[in-house]
Structures are given as structure tokens and as C-alpha cells.
Automatic annotation (TrEMBL), chains A, B:
Alphabetical list of SMART domains matching this protein: HTH_GNTR
Molecular function in Gene Ontology: DNA binding; DNA-binding transcription factor activity; pyridoxal phosphate binding; transaminase activity
Stretches assigned to coiled coil: none
Protein family per UniProt: In the C-terminal section; belongs to the class-I pyridoxal-phosphate-dependent aminotransferase family.
Keyword Cell membrane: no
InterPro entries per the UniProt record, alphabetical: Aminotransferase_I/II_large, HTH_trans_reg/aminotransferase, PyrdxlP-dep_Trfase, PyrdxlP-dep_Trfase_major, PyrdxlP-dep_Trfase_small, Tscrpt_reg_HTH_GntR, WH-like_DNA-bd_sf, WH_DNA-bd_sf
Protein's name according to its UniProt entry: PLP-dependent aminotransferase family protein
């Protein structure tokens, strides 16, 4: 690689240990490129001076000089003599992947999802975020499809109403009331999916640069999504009763986040649920600090008995509620929903029309058919029992391998576990994929603070194949 | 309304003409509120001084003093004595509606969509952006649903692959080749819809504050969507052969937009298509000014003979291509697709996973069933002939009312027309809705420059009911 002299900068001698220096230069380059792709450095913005950058990254100034020179040669940044270095105008598409130098690729928030979706049927997926297809009500869906294919006024070709099927909203309103959330059909809006619902709410509630609070650990896609919204993300540790209240109070005072994005019941990845006391305190703190909360409740139907919902205590004043059936009914035919203040619905509908137009009209009808006929309720009764058995068995098998549950969830599929001493979750995940075609979910993919390197999320429903225990045993040996 | 004294500001006497002054105060307040909701004024940002604001809006300083005082009382802005007024930290959700004081609500880009979706079956919808449901292949979809309900490996419950069904991408790749766009299946990604595809690409390619070019007139949802991306939008006039090249060159030099969002064939709302010469010149200019282009080709299948595609000439280097079947097959079971450079696909897939997770797996299978069996091609042959007849008849009827086509489209459903002298399209649309439950599409909803006040978009397929001619005649009399 030729040395490119920088105008107005003293040209430095190559260092003796050229190999190491070159690696450091590439790390600095990678770091800057990622900040440009992630929009923390925008087009036309001035880069830190060479001295400031060297101090910030703990590298020699000559390393920064080399890195800047090469980025100038690539057209990524521009040198303006007498003024400094600026991000170039060349288009750099946005990237959600946020793997820092030195971070394991398995800690990239999108890694687990991508691997799980790409895994073929023969792959083992104990880290997967959804149920095996054989656990889903395929026959019920086949029957519902035939019913719809014959129904006179089935919504097969046209657009639906902007807010989404009134009948389905009516039915969802009743279901929400059962877990204490009072939302009239007029306070509900249907979306393409739970993910799209959260994304739409982030667009609605956030400005670029706003600070958002998440749990540590939290669902990894929250991190990737918030990055796409150019939010600053902070986190507080999650306990078996909910967020750590002392840390929460400190964080709210220090960072003044606008939004808290969380699962209140059957939290992903820990499987924990809010206690009533913590739920109340979270809302008291939220009121003190003008915090809006998105309560993503996509695992609600796995519960045997409903845990307290923030949305129920709060009456949907500062809590916005999100639900979906992708985890329990079908991930192919998806419908999400948002319950919120009545005066926000019209703006939310407009935002949906502008960015997604209408949402799954056919899916909504299919869901309504399954919910109204009682089919879904029967399916869920069976599913809950089956999951409880799987959870018991999985805990037993993992414990035999020295893998300890951090908490025993009251329901659901997720089990957050501590690995035996000295075992690194990212390393184990990488070896599992290469040696056993097995997709694991390493702790740091869920941890903003990267403090969960010895934790792993398991999906009890995906852990029943004895080959998983054998593979884990071999990897841990 | 009590007068609230502002600390550090002289308290002004109420003006004599209190009614008019109070209206002006409300206009200033509304203007500031909209800029906060639209994020052109961000939390914590300083507002213009009272003098500057008064000059900018052409109102008396006392009006601005009153408006600021009331906004302080509402908590929307904060007064910092000795420093000025600042946008408050209170959360103001984002709004895509962008009706300026004095602008007709019918010019709000979301108005036509909202009214069209809310209209019941009995309403007349000559301004609607889609075909009547009776023109869509309902029986074909019913049959396809029954086929899928019986197919052994139908994707009814699980997630699909991140990039979307390989079989469908293979088939789409062949179809694109027929109109000269060379895209291997690996260069295609499926999305929930064409709208979601464009939205995802905006996220991928834009930073907040980037300038984006659209046609004038253009599809109104582009304006609303770009607002949601916090883009600055500029426009160039559209001619029957494509964008005005002189205006385009000037605009590129002056505003340096990063992105051009357009329909190349059967442009919405004008029905015009790019000529080969203009297509070539657009790409030459784009290369000179490092412009990326999104070619939204959702009306492609209406064409009798394919017009030149920017993506075909350019080989998908700086043009990203978007397609969908929502306008021709079903708006209830939607699938969109993006064709782009191979090296952008993986980042786009990650962005889709982070913000929407997986896209309509079931819809993709249904679409594949209809495309692979030849059903769709048969449907489109009939549809094109039917639309050509409807277009001829509609032009004849409108001309009798003194409504003149700006251009005779070679195909498709849209007809862009000039109203008789002195008739205002927004006013006509408002009266049509109130007096005849008829949804029209007034020109300025499509025009960034608000220069299309005497134009109207008609949908030939929605214009066949003679009641429309009668209602228009009565309104114009």
C-alpha cells in the first residue's frame, strides 16, 4: 500500500513494526467508515483533528495520519488545507451492522436473525427466536384459507381502511381488556407486523439524535432498529422483576431519554416479567422524567396468568402498546397492532399511509377468522402446555451441562442462561455454527453494554432434539 | 384568551382589530407547531428572534410576541431570559400532514389517499389511485388460495429467507429482462410492498437534511414519505417526454440533490413515459452530479409496449429499480421488490430485518403461483384492453365538460387534465366530496411548487359511472 502524503501535514516515517501499525491504521479506517455509514458522521461534517482522534482512539498520531490519508485517497473523506478533514459527499449507504473493531461478529445485533433465517430444516437452532414450524397451527390456517377463498366479501384484491379492519380491532380491544389494557377500537391501528409497529412508533416519537432507553439485555433487533432511527441508545440492567430501579432513576436523570423500549411480560431474552411494584415505580419515574414508553407485548399469549402491563396501569397515557401474532400463529401471514392515545391515531395513520400505505388487509381477515372462531384459543391452550413441558426438560438438560438458568420464566420459550465459567458465548456460537451447523444466540448480541459474554439465550421449543445436547456437550468439553 | 406577559419582553397593548390579530397569532402558532412536528425545528433549538420571525412571516412584532407567549404557556416552547425562545423538550409526535396556513386541506399529500380509502362502495372515486375491485382477478386469487391450502410445503406458518423466495426472485428476474432490466435473482430483494421498498431505499440512501429531487407533478405520497425521512425536497417540471432537461440541469447544479425519485414509465399522475433521448440525458446528468435514482415502476404491467427504463440503460449502477403487483393483481396480498447493485443487497437485507423483519412470505408464494401458471398474464391482457377502452371514453366525456387532457397516455389508468379556465381544483374537490360524496385528486396534491391548481388527475377505470359526468357537470356549472 503506497503512502499518500497529506497536503499541509508532515509526512511521517513508516514505523518499524509495520505489520501491527498497518492493522491499527485499518482499525481506525474501519471505525471512521462505520461512523459514516451509521450517520454518526454526516456528509460534510468535520472530522476530529489528528491529535484529538489519536487521543480518543488511543493510537499514535502517525496511525491517524495514515488512516486519514488512505480515506482521502478512497474519496471517503476530503482534506481542506488549513481547515481539516471532512466527510466526503460520496454516497455511503446506511448500514445497521455495528460490529466494532475487536467485537465478535456474533455480537452484531443482526447476526442471530440472519443465521436463524438462513438455516435449513436440518440445522439445529436452539438460539432461534421463534417456534418450530411444526408447533404452529398449520391445519387451522389451511382451513381458514379455504373458508376465505369461498367467502363472498373476502378482502382479496382491494385496499382496506387506513386504520385497519374494524371487526378485528373490535376483537383485539376485547382481548386487551382481558389483560387489563383498556383500548377502544378507535385507539387501535393495525400494522404489517409487530416489528413494523415499533418502527412506526419510533418514527412518530423520535428525532435523530434523541436518546432511547433499552433493557440490558434486550431484544437485539431493538438496537439495530434504533440505529436506523439515528437514536443514541442507553441501557439499564434487567432483573427478574424488571429494570433495576436504582439504575433506571440514575439513567433518566443523567441521559434524559425520550423513550423506553421494552417488553413488560416474558421479556426477550430473559423470560422475566415485571412485578406489580416495579411496574408502578417505572411509571412514577417515567412521569417525573417525561418518558414515553413502548411496551412490546408480542409474547403475551404465551402467559398462563397475565403479569402486570405498564399500559394497563398507565391507561395508555404515556405507554404505547404493541402486539402481534407472529410468534404464536403464523410468521408468514402477519398482522401487528398498536394501542395508544386516541388523539395520536390520526397522525399515526397518516404516517403509515406515507411510509407503508395500507397494511395486510388479507392477513387481518385471516386472523379475524381464526380468532373469532375460537381456533386460536384452542391452539394456544395446547401450545402453553407443550411449552411448559419443553421448558422443564430443557432446564434439566442444560443444567446437566453446567449451563444455569439466570431465572426460571413463568412461561414462554426463552431461557436466559449463564455458561460454565470461562466459556465465551460468542466463541461457542461461532464454533457451533462451523462444526455443528447449530445456531446459538450469544449474550452480547442482546447487551448494549457488552456485559453478557458468558450468557446465552435458549429457546426451549427448539431445544428438544437430543443432538443439541450432544453438540453442546462436545463444544463445552 | 388571557394575555401572558413574557419575561424580559415589553407587554404589548391589544390591537384594536382584535379578531384579525387573534387569527394571525393562531396562524403563527400553527406554523411553529407544524415546524416542530415536522422536525424542521428540533427539541432544544433556538427559535428566530421576534423581529426576524415577524419579518419572515410578514406580520407585526406584537403578533409574534403573542404567539410565542401562548406557546410558552402551552409548554411547546421555552423562554430563556436574555437568550431567546427555544423549542421545548415536551414530546411532539411527528406529523406527515403539511398543510400550510392558507393552503387548501385538499393539497395535503395524504388527503387523496385518506379520502379514497375511507370512501364506501357507493362513493364515486374518479380521483382514486387504483382500479375498481371488480377489475381485479378475484376468482384467480380464490383458486390460488385453495391451491396453497392443499400444497404440502406451503409457507403458512414460518418465516421466509431474508432476501425473499428464491423461486419468485428467479421469475421476477426473467420478467425484468423482458423490459431490458438485467438483474440476477441475487440482485433482487422482496419487500412487503412497493411503498415499503421505496421507504427502505430512502432509509438506505438518505441522511436527514439530504436534498431529494422529485417531478412536478409527482405521486403525492413521495412528498409525504420524504418528509418522514426529513429530506429537503426540490422539484423540476415534468413534460410529456420526462423531466424538463434544462430545469433538471439547473436544479442539479444549484441544489446538488443526492437522490431522484421518479416513475419512468406511465408516470403518476401524468401518465407520460420517458422518451429514449430524455432517459439517456437524465443518466448523463446523473453521472455528472453523482445522483442516485429510484425508478418506481409499479405501473409497468399496464404498458402495451415497454418504454425505455432508466434501470435498463444504466445497468443498475446508479438506478435502483422498484416493482410491485398491488396495482394490477391485489392490494390485499402485497409483494414488492427491489433490483439493485449486487453489493448493496446484503446491507439492504439487514436494514429490512431491523425495521420490518421478514416480508410477506405467504404473499410471495401466492404471487408465484399466479405468475408461474400464466394466470396473471391472461388477466393483464384483458385488463390492458379494458383500460384502453375506458381511457378513450373518459377523454371524450371529460372533453365535453371542457376538461382537457394535458397529454394522451399510451396506457395505464391515469389522465392528467386541465380544468376549464377559472376553476380551482382544490375548491372543486372539496365541493365534490361534500355535495356528491365524490373523491377527486386535485393537482396541487401532486405539486411541490403548488403550480397545478387548475389540474386534476382522473383514473379512467374509476370514471365509467355516468353519475361522475353528471356530478362534474353540476359542479362546473
Amino acid at each position: 500500500m503506497p503512502e499518500t502524503p497529506i497536503p499541509g501535514q508532515p509526512q511521517l516515517q513508516p514505523t518499524a513494526d509495520h505489520g501491527v501499525a498497518s492493522t491499527r491504521v485499518e482499525q481506525v479506517m474501519r471505525d471512521i467508515r462505520q461512523r459514516i455509514e451509521g450517520r454518526s458522521l454526516c456528509a460534510g461534517k468535520r472530522l476530529p483533528s489528528i491529535r484529538a482522534q489519536a487521543e480518543a482512539l488511543g493510537v499514535a498520531r502517525s496511525t491517524v495520519v495514515d488512516a486519514y490519508a488512505r480515506l482521502v485517497a478512497e474519496g471517503v473523506i476530503e482534506s481542506r488545507p488549513g481547515s481539516g478533514f471532512y466527510v466526503g459527499r460520496q454516497l455511503t449507504p446506511f448500514s445497521v451492522a455495528e460490529v466494532q473493531p475487536g467485537m465478535a461478529p456474533q455480537s452484531d445485533p443482526v447476526w442471530v436473525t440472519r443465521q436463524s433465517l438462513l438455516a435449513d430444516a436440518a440445522s439445529l437452532k436452539p438460539g432461534c427466536g421463534w417456534l418450530p414450524e411444526t408447533w404452529m397451527p398449520e391445519q387451522d390456517i389451511r382451513r381458514a384459507l379455504r373458508t376465505l377463498s369461498r367467502r363472498a366479501l373476502a378482502p382479496l384484491t382491494g385496499y382496506g381502511t387506513p386504520q385497519g379492519s374494524p371487526q378485528l380491532r373490535q376483537l383485539l380491544s376485547h382481548r386487551l381488556a382481558e389483560r387489563g389494557v383498556k383500548a377502544a377500537p378507535a385507539q387501535l391501528m393495525l400494522t404489517e407486523s409487530g416489528t413494523q409497529a415499533v418502527d412506526l412508533l419510533c418514527r412518530f416519537l423520535l428525532q435523530p439524535g434523541d436518546t432511547v432507553l433499552v433493557d440490558d439485555p434486550c431484544y437485539f433487533s431493538f438496537q439495530a432498529m434504533l440505529r436506523a432511527h439515528r437514536a443514541e441508545v442507553v441501557s439499564v440492567p434487567y432483573t427478574p422483576q424488571g429494570p433495576d430501579l436504582v439504575a433506571l432513576a440514575q439513567c433518566l436523570a443523567q441521559h434524559r431519554p425520550r423513550l423506553y423500549l421494552t417488553n413488560a411480560a416474558l421479556h426477550n431474552p430473559t423470560g422475566a416479567s415485571l412485578s406489580l411494584e416495579v411496574a408502578h415505580q417505572v411509571l412514577v419515574l417515567a412521569a417525573q422524567h417525561e418518558l414515553t414508553i413502548i411496551e412490546d407485548d408480542v409474547f403475551a399469549d404465551f402467559e398462563h396468568h397475565p403479569a402486570p402491563r405498564l399500559a394497563a396501569l398507565d391507561g395508555l397515557q404515556r405507554v404505547v402498546y404493541v402486539g402481534s401474532f407472529s410468534k404464536t400463529l403464523s410468521a408468514s401471514v402477519r398482522v401487528g397492532h398498536i394501542a395508544t392515545r386516541a388523539d395520536w391515531i390520526s397522525q399515526l395513520v397518516d404516517l403509515k399511509l406515507a411510509t407503508a400505505f395500507e397494511s395486510g388487509h388479507f392477513s387481518a381477515e385471516l386472523l379475524h377468522t381464526l380468532l373469532a372462531g375460537g381456533t386460536y384459543q384452542r391452539h394456544m391452550n395446547g401450545l402453553r402446555a407443550r411449552l411448559a413441558d419443553a421448558m422443564g426438560l430443557t432446564i434439566e438438560r442444560l443444567q446437566r451441562l453446567g449451563i444455569q438458568p439466570w431465572h426460571r420464566p413463568q412461561a414462554g420459550m426463552f431461557l436466559w442462561c449463564r455458561l460454565p465459567d470461562g466459556v465465551d458465548a460468542a466463541d461457542l456460537s461461532q464454533r457451533a455454527l462451523l462444526q455443528h451447523r447449530m445456531v446459538l444466540a450469544p449474550g452480547n448480541a442482546f447487551s448494549l453494554s457488552q456485559s453478557a459474554g458468558s450468557f446465552m439465550r435458549f429457546n426451549a421449543a427448539q431445544c428438544l432434539d437430543p443432538a443439541i445436547g450432544r453438540a453442546l456437550g462436545a463444544l463445552l468439553a
